[in-house]
Amino acid sequence: MATALQEIRQAQRADGHAAVLAIGTANPATSMLQDEYTDYYFRVTKSEHLTHLKHKLKRILRTPGIEKRFMHVSEEILDAHPDLIDRTLPTLDARIDMASAAVPKLAASAAWKAIVEWGRPATDITHLVFSTYSGGRAPSADLRLASLLGLRPTVCRTVLNLNGCSGGGRALQIAKELAENNRGARVLVACSELTLIAFYGPQDGCLDTIVGQGLFGDGAGAIVVGADPVEDERPLFEMAFTTQTTIPETEDAITMQLRKGGLDFHISSQVPRLLAENIERVLIDAFEPLGVVANGAAWNDLFWAIHPGGRSILDNIEELLGLDAEKLGASRQVLRDFGNMSGATVIFVLDELRRRRAKEGETAAEWGVVMAFGPGITIETMVLHAATNNLKEN
Ligand SMILES: CC(C)(COP(=O)(O)OP(=O)(O)OC[C@H]1O[C@@H](n2cnc3c(N)ncnc32)[C@H](O)[C@@H]1OP(=O)(O)O)[C@@H](O)C(=O)NCCC(=O)NCCSC(=O)CC(=O)O
């Protein structure tokens, strides 16, 4: 009897590690250059009189790091919903109504790209892991996404809500577990983040709004994950090991809360320092059990997909670990071209990374790491092994 159970268990599980099989990304149609954003933001929110806040946003935007961001909230939307500008007005219903339509639509654009690259029918997807901070309704945007993609009615859905910028990292970790524990499973990870849930005009005493206006953009990313690739599937990165670490006593450092006026968030100015103080320990804990990287001397031997939460986060990590300038190149490029798109950002970084690796060819690093940071402060870490396949141009 015990043997039979053991055999069933073995037959149910995959033989190999889960792998990233395809990646897709998408953004809203409207983009904004950082140089032009301050004037635009203060004009459309009718806040020109708040000159000290305008100067503050200008100072933040002057920092090299982000050049362009994509946004769902347009002048037309603000003309139709002027209440969105005032955080004290009860606009949550209107925001959730808009997000319920737009979040799955953007996710579907990214997911279609991933599915087309994967090369199999959408109905072969067995599991969906969906992450967003821009929702507030059940059934959630994942069900709408499943319907837009024509996924099978037996697809197993999991929703991560308000995981913030670590949502993409967590979703990938869940996908790995699902793929390795269910033989033949093909997991679609989708993260779709729209700032419309938290878009406000500037207000005295709300510096978070100004910092957020300087950093955050809209985007969606999707990844197909599966183990034991079959013919025509082309693994990009094998998922070797994962950890989640919460930095003690940092519950108040990054927070989000739905209120009648939308999503209120707080980002402590201590976040870059707190991450820098903890990151090396987390990396050692992730790599040492594998025997891949014995000590910090080898950090430059890895490829890196770090969530670019802000330029100073990347600068601190680069300096602390003594990384060569190009090591965080994919993270910096995504930050430059799209800003911080919360949970979706690491998917954009992986997409950029695979393009860069294709150019590097045989010299590209074999082992690498994905790190995403969110409320907690939570650090999601995944050790990756490059499939030889990802050295080919797509
Ligand atoms: C915002 C920055 C790009 C600005 O960089 P600068 O080089 O211009 O210089 P700086 O750091 O001195 O900041 C410029 C001005 O902004 C202020 N400032 C900076 N960070 C702030 C914060 N979190 N809250 C309030 N004010 C802040 C500074 O005090 C300063 O004010 P003054 O000019 O008056 O002196 C950088 O500080 C940065 O990258 N910070 C990290 C952002 C971050 O934590 N991202 C994680 C987001 S959360 C995330 O990714 C996960 C999630 O959401 O779940």
UniProtKB/TrEMBL annotation:
Domain Chalcone/stilbene synthase C-terminal residues, every copy: 238-386
Active site annotation, chain numbering: C165
Record-level Gene Ontology MF annotations: acyltransferase activity, transferring groups other than amino-acyl groups
GO BP, sorted A to Z: pollen wall assembly
Organism: Triticum aestivum (Wheat)
SUPFAM superfamilies reported in the protein's UniProt record: Thiolase-like (SSF53901)
Taxon lineage: Eukaryota, Viridiplantae, Streptophyta, Embryophyta, Tracheophyta
Protein name: Chalcone synthase
Family annotation (InterPro entries): Chalcone/stilbene_synt_C (IPR012328), Chalcone/stilbene_synt_N (IPR001099), Polyketide_synthase_type-III (IPR011141), Thiolase-like (IPR016039)
